[in-house]
Amino acid sequence: MSKVAPPNPLEMLAYNIAQMIEDDQIVYVGTGLPMVGAILAKKTHAPNITLVYESGGQDPLEGQMPWSVGCPFTYRKSPAVLEMAVSFGQCAIGYVDIAFQGGAQIDMYGNVNTSVIGSYENLKSILPGSGGGNDIGSLTQKSVLVGLQTPDRFPARVDFITTPGYLDGGDSREKAGLMGGPIAVVTQVGIYDFEPVTKRMRIKALNPGMSVEIAQACTGFELLVPDEVPFIEPPSDEVLEILRKEVDPRGVFIKMPAR
């Protein structure tokens, strides 16, 4: 029997992010669990990836877990430190293979809201805004959305489109002149993709202990469900040890919040 505690939901989310990354890719990293997943990938199955941080740090040497993409740790002995606008330019000219971003709301078509909750006439919350979200979502060929899945965070339609996904579904993104689009959504419940024709969010695989019913209960719209739903293999004890002792030993992002 394993002496290593099973992964908590945040650790499982970080592990799933890592599994989206292939060796030798240039990876655009956002704040939070995307940083954890990217560093975990580099320490395990993808040692030759290049980490590009939103604020401009290019592939810093190994050090402490950054607090954000603007943390000094993201610049540690980097071969180059660029301005944020230049890092967005890397996306635009194709020097990014995969990008990760989060949001306060993600809807059935992969549109992301980081601007406001409610309407401008009836504001409930004012959020930080786009930052680099729109640039990442509009300019990269492959983006992965990351979020904690609850019905209010996964509504049928976001209150405000900060970063376009597939807009109204179908070919509406293409008609808007945007390339690519989100290829997946990673949450504590599992991994989702988008049905090729309608661009509706669809279950791709679920985490251990989850079910279609749980996934639907955590969502504010009807998920598309394939005939067979695979389950994701949990991380090995070795990977969990690396995650907990080497990647985020202080539990900055993978420690579950106390009640």
From TrEMBL:
**What are the protein's UniProt keywords?**
Transferase
Which Pfam families does the UniProt entry name for this protein?
Answer: CoA_trans
One example of the protein's molecular function in GO is: CoA-transferase activity
- Point out the signal peptide segment: none
Q: Which InterPro entries match?
A: CoA_trans_fam_I, NagB/RpiA_transferase-like
Question: PANTHER family, from UniProt?
Answer: ACETATE COA-TRANSFERASE YDIF, CHOLESTEROL RING-CLEAVING HYDROLASE IPDB SUBUNIT
Q: Which family does it belong to?
A: Belongs to the 3-oxoacid CoA-transferase subunit B family.
The protein depicted here goes by the name: Glutaconate CoA-transferase subunit B
Q: To which species is this protein native?
A: Thermosyntropha lipolytica DSM 11003
